[in-house]
UniProtKB/TrEMBL annotation:
<dbReference type="InterPro" id="IPR006655">
    <property type="entry name" value="Mopterin_OxRdtase_prok_CS"/>
</dbReference>
<feature type="domain" description="4Fe-4S Mo/W bis-MGD-type">
    <location>
        <begin position="6"/>
        <end position="63"/>
    </location>
</feature>
<dbReference type="Pfam" id="PF01568">
    <property type="entry name" value="Molydop_binding"/>
</dbReference>
<protein>
    <submittedName>
        <fullName>Molybdopterin-dependent oxidoreductase</fullName>
    </submittedName>
</protein>
<keyword id="KW-0500">Molybdenum</keyword>
<dbReference type="InterPro" id="IPR006963">
    <property type="entry name" value="Mopterin_OxRdtase_4Fe-4S_dom"/>
</dbReference>
<dbReference type="InterPro" id="IPR037920">
    <property type="entry name" value="YoaE_C"/>
</dbReference>
<keyword id="KW-0408">Iron</keyword>
<keyword id="KW-0560">Oxidoreductase</keyword>
<dbReference type="Pfam" id="PF04879">
    <property type="entry name" value="Molybdop_Fe4S4"/>
</dbReference>
<keyword id="KW-0411">Iron-sulfur</keyword>
<comment type="similarity">
    <text>Belongs to the prokaryotic molybdopterin-containing oxidoreductase family.</text>
</comment>
<dbReference type="InterPro" id="IPR006657">
    <property type="entry name" value="MoPterin_dinucl-bd_dom"/>
</dbReference>
<dbReference type="InterPro" id="IPR009010">
    <property type="entry name" value="Asp_de-COase-like_dom_sf"/>
</dbReference>
<dbReference type="InterPro" id="IPR006656">
    <property type="entry name" value="Mopterin_OxRdtase"/>
</dbReference>
<dbReference type="Pfam" id="PF00384">
    <property type="entry name" value="Molybdopterin"/>
</dbReference>
<dbReference type="InterPro" id="IPR050612">
    <property type="entry name" value="Prok_Mopterin_Oxidored"/>
</dbReference>
């Protein structure tokens, strides 16, 4: 048995990161003592990030949950008693049965995201359970849904340039993505291109690590990227830097677009974005004259009120210039479309007695829990930490505090969320389980088999939900299906030609197997948009009440695109809270090693904004708005345009110190895809 043996074993990084690295776990006395990269992985090639190199500290953290627990104190107090698995499962199934009788099955809500990207864990047995239960359906909109919608309205298919092609790009624009921290192997590939003369441009609201690495950093005001992209298009059309033959063949609406951007001059775009007009012209020239420019469309762009439109507008650029036709040229937001598995076989929607069950948007979890009309009475949280990651924490907390709400949390740790649970269940780490992994960036499918024995009494999601399904008396075959059989079913999906030839046996033999990328050659011929072409003009959007052509719409709070807020305005600063380098969302925020690397949560503030408020570098500051307040340490630095403040990382509250940033963020929804708008947040700041 691998679990008991010592040696070096292959593994997959389970975290929500595009790189999905191949790992090697080094074991002594049955325990992982070292994590390194697998040099045989064709894309990640043995390099891994610091977070995961220190992963053993998390796996064997002294605070790891080892047994099921039942709450004994008030919600949020963190007071629990140890119970057995039998007691925990009996209590959950009994409470769920009672709730179904008294309030209907839709009074139960699962709340999950991708704390572990394993398909069996988060898109597998768990889904079967909540389907068979007839629970409310969670709309998983916290990460990429606005940008996804913006991309799909334009391109139809959720896929772009392959990692292997990036080194052939002669210009790389990283737009709203901090890839040095969040997609490190893309940096390695871009470096290869750079050695051949490729220039790297970063467009961001602050000088993040990626901007420091770039050849040219272009700072702009938050939420104004649509205006910048339109300004670039204005120059491209005006100066004949477009590819009319390409547009004729592969797009719809180019004449309308040309007309539409005539008024979007560089001067117009400069007033909105804060980017000087001459820089916009220079960027347009670089882009229009490049042979094969690649745009990395980052995730930061979509977390705005207008995030879908930002992504859509940027996505139009390589269609206007025809860069798509050349190797390395085009754009990439996500490549998850290539690796679509058989989700029907995995998730078994046929088990659902109520196909019309209500949907609840995860970004509005606070509101949903406080809704008395059709109340949520049972909540099951796993692979997510909403008390830290969901917008408008105060409202979410009020929801979780509701006395009559029965909450179960399955996690590896006593997170800020787990403290509100009635029952806490210990989760196994992915290295203790079998699972299947796809990447949303590279094209390798990977298999994880258990490498270590279970820590404490922990159970994997697969085990937990299959047990719960059996205890609820649901269809036995779906809940007793083996992991291997589920993997086979997931890979058996003839409608996705990219999966051709991928089998469990091949994965067992090679650990990672590449998708059959041959259909990608016909990528532009088979775009699944309504017109079958790249939609520069989208009738679908027009019908949905949005502009059919890419159009700049200001944010709903803070900067309105015309007037910088006066310093004495109630909330004059835009607050951006993107991920940091050493955590993965809120994962690792409780690991001393990772805390040490990050030191403490900071508020980066421009010297001008600091001076007006009498703030010096290193001062403790309060950041607040009408939703809540957070206490951070000021880092005064000229890293952004005045008017924007930045705090990286999703920290947990520590010893009563308020350091969660989502107390500040709104739970409004973006223009498309019902996405989260974390970054469209206006605040004020004062010295403590
Ligand atoms: N180290 C690390 N890696 C991670 C994660 C992590 O927490 N830590 N999280 C993972 C997950 S789930 C995701 S979704 C990805 C996210 O990773 P990325 O795709 O890099 O996206 P973000 O980090 O959310 O935002 C990227 C940048 O967008 C900028 N930004 C914000 N607003 C605007 C704007 O209006 N215009 C422009 N141009 N830029 C703007 C932010 O300043 C930030 O530098 O990373 C994954 N990888
Ligand atoms: N302000 C602000 N908020 C943000 C963001 C931002 O940039 N700024 N980013 C947003 C984005 S893009 C995302 S994707 C979300 C991410 O939010 P989440 O998906 O909630 O991610 P994590 O905070 O990493 O929490 C994952 C949890 O899953 C647990 N876990 C890991 N493996 C397993 C397992 O096998 N089983 C079970 N049951 N649990 C497991 C981990 O211990 C951890 O507590 O946050 C969003 N929130
Ligand atoms: S977090 Fe990303 S870069 Fe780090 S090991 Fe995992 S997949 Fe690789
Ligand atoms: Mo995400």
């Amino acid at each position: 048995m691998t679990e008991a043996a010592d040696g070096v074993f292959p593994a997959v990084c389970p975290l929500d990161c595009p790189d999905t690295c191949g790992l090697l776990l080094h074991k002594e006395n049955g325990k992982i003592v070292k994590v390194t990269g697998d040099p045989n992985h064709p894309i990640t090639k043995g390099a891994i990030c610091n977070k995961v190199r220190n992963m053993a500290e998390r796996i064997y953290h002294p605070e790891r949950l080892l047994h099921p627990l039942r709450r004994t104190g008030p919600k949020g107090s963190g007071q629990f008693e140890r119970i057995t698995w039998e007691e925990a499962l009996a209590e959950i199934t009994e409470r769920f049965r009672d709730l179904i009788t008294s309030h209907g099955s839709e009074s139960i809500l699962p709340y999950s995201f991708y704390g572990n990207m394993g398909k069996l864990s988060v898109d597998g047995m768990d889904r079967r359970f909540f389907n068979a239960l007839g629970a409310s359906e969670l709309e998983q909109t916290i990460c990429n849904s606005a940008g996804n919608a913006g991309w799909v309205h334009t391109m139809g298919f959720y896929g772009g340039v392959s990692p292997e092609d990036i080194e052939h790009a002669d210009l790389i624009i990283v737009w709203g993505g901090n890839i040095v921290s969040t997609n490190m192997h893309q940096v390695v590939l871009a470096e290869k291109a750079r050695k051949k003369g490729t220039r790297i441009v970063v467009i961001d609201v602050h000088r993040n690590r990626t901007a420091q690495w770039a050849d040219w950093f272009i700072p702009l005001y938050p939420g104004t990227d649509t205006a910048l992209a339109l300004g670039i298009m204005n120059v491209l059309f005006a100066e004949g830097l477009t590819d009319t033959a390409f547009m004729e063949r592969y797009t719809v609406g180019h004449e309308l677009l040309e007309e539409h951007v005539r008024g979007c001059t560089p001067e117009w775009a400069a007033r909105i974005t804060g980017v000087p007009a001459e820089d916009i012209v220079r960027l347009a020239h670089m882009y229009g004259r490049a042979h094969a420019a690649h745009i990395h469309v980052g995730n930061g762009l979509q977390h705005h009120d207008n995030g879908g439109m930002i992504v859509r507008t940027i996505t139009c650029l390589p269609a206007v210039t025809g860069h798509w036709q050349r190797r390395g040229g085009g754009a990439t937001k996500s490549n998850s479309g290539y690796a679509r598995l058989n989700s029907v076989a995995l998730e078994r929607p046929d088990l659902r007695p109520n196909p019309q069950a209500r949907h609840i948007n995860m970004n509005r979890i606070g509101e949903a829990l406080l809704d008395n009309e059709k109340p949520v009475m049972g909540l099951f949280v796993y692979c997510s930490n909403p008390l830290v990651v969901a917008p408008d924490t105060e409202r979410v907390t009020r929801g979780f505090e509701r006395e009559e709400l029965f909450t179960v949390v399955h996690d590896l740790f006593m997170t800020d969320t787990a403290k509100y649970a009635d029952i806490v269940l210990p989760a196994a780490s992915s290295f203790e389980s079998t699972d299947l992994f796809t990447s949303y960036w590279h094209h390798y499918i990977q298999l994880q088999e258990p490498v270590i024995e279970r820590v404490g009494e922990s159970k994997s999601n697969y085990e937990l939900f299959s047990l719960l399904g059996q205890m609820m008396g649901f269809d036995n075959e779906a809940f007793s299906e083996s992991e291997e059989s589920m993997i086979r079913a997931a890979l058996n999906h003839s409608v996705n030609p990219y999966l051709n030839g991928i089998t469990l046996e091949a994965l067992q033999e090679h650990r990672h197997v590449k998708l059959d990328m041959s259909p990608q050659e016909r990528f532009l011929e088979m775009l699944p948009t309504p017109s079958g072409k790249i939609e520069l003009y989208s009738e679908t959007l027009e019908r949905a009440g949005l502009p059919g052509l890419p159009t700049y719409v200001p944010l709903k709070e803070g900067y309105d695109g015309e007037h910088r807020p006066e310093p004495d305005a109630l909330y004059p600063l835009m607050f951006i809270s993107p991920p940091n380098h050493n955590f993965l969302n809120s994962t690792f925020a409780n690991v001393p090693k990772h805390q040490e690397l990050e030191k403490e949560p900071l508020l980066q503030i421009h010297p001008e904004d600091a001076a007006v408020r009498g703030i010096a570098d290193g001062d403790k500051v309060t950041v607040w708005n009408e939703r809540g307040a957070s206490e951070l340490r000021a880092k005064v630095a000229d890293r952004m345009l005045p008017g924007t403040v930045i705090s990286q990382g999703l920290w947990w509250d520590k010893n009563g110190q308020r350091q969660r940033v989502n107390v500040l963020t709104p739970d409004r929804l973006a223009d498309m895809g019902k996405g989260a708008v974390f970054f469209s947040t206006a605040v004020n700041v004062k010295r403590q």
